[in-house]
Amino acid sequence: MPSQSSKMDLKAIELGRFLSARRAQINPEQVGLPVGTRRRPGLRREEVAMLAGVGASWYQWIEQGRAKNVSREVLEAISCVLKLDTIEHRYMMSLAGVVGPERAEPQHDGLLIHQVVEGYQPNPAYVLDRYWNVVAANASALRLLGAHLTEGNYLRLLFTDPSFRELYIDWEQGAADEIARFRAHTGNRLGEQELTSLIEELRAESGTFARLWETRDVSDGSCTVQEMSHGELGQVSFSRITLDFTCHGGYRLVLLTPDQATRERIAACWEDRASKTVQSLEPAAADMRRRDDDTTSDLLEHPRARRPLDAPGQPHSDLSPGRRRPVGSSRMVARLDAR
Q: At what angle do helices 171-186 and 86-96 cross, to 10 degrees?
């Protein structure tokens, strides 16, 4: 298991790479500098340092992952120069250790989580843990995203499962968006063994993941529109809302609310099919009830069945003493049928 110091080193390295990636996206004209002749896109390190009021050597150390205990004031100045948005700013602060880590939480209550997702039926809902393993999903989510959804990791399915990939209308853009959300969600857990293993596995299995991971884009993505191409439903659209479980650190509830057209498609396809299944069972059930009625009628029409019952404690008149059997017993019915 990585030590606390090694985790901090990894975060410092990631902070430097993140700032370098953001620096490359800033046009000199955006900050009032001439473009001139440049070998690489974006600002130079010394330009960021000058605009942020930071020593050039100190900023170089930050990007190289060698700086320790970078102050909030320095980070705020760099954020202003690089024009970081709210999510990028939060991610930068998290890597620098300015934002405290999430508290360790006890083992999650599986029953509670399943009750939450089931309560959102008939709309799809599922829960991701801190590494995006799918820990719960309701029936609608399984039908929409695949029955194997709860057997794996959402990112691994996205990059290694062809059937999951086909759900995305624009898979390349969808994959980039998911990675940006994942990076923002897990930035404070950099260096944890399970996260490191997952990233290395996906790097090895998917060249697209490896390329997109290096962009170091981050995104909140808590309220988005997710469009899909579904085998049964066709093209569908959902409002996707992601909520944090405050009682379970790192766990996230994803709710998919269909738009009107998608709602109508679901009603026409899934609900109509369920209705037809019920209807197909009705003739068999009616036939079974009819047979039961016929059997009861035959018994009631039998001569012995029409005779009044003997008084309590007395044997039936056609049975010899000592051979009395209770009314309605299987042997009594067999005796009547034999007659």
A: 40
Looking at residue 151, its amino acid is E
Q: Per-residue confidence at 287, pLDDT binned at 50, 70, 90? A: low
Per-residue pLDDT averaged across 139-167, rounded?
93
**Pick from 224, 127, 245: which is nearest to 177 by CA?**
224
| β pairing state of 223-230 and 252-258 | unpaired
What is the rounded distance in angstroms from the CA atom of residue 104 to the CA atom of residue 259?
A: 38
For CA atoms 221, 222, 225, 226, the dihedral sign is positive
**Main-chain phi, psi angles of 183, to 5 degrees:** -65, -45
Tokens coding 159: 């990059």
Write the pLDDT tens digit of every residue in 246-282: 656 678 999 999 999 999 998 888 765 544 433 333 4
Measure the CA–CA gap between 239 and 295, rounded to whole angstroms: 56
Residues in the chain: 339
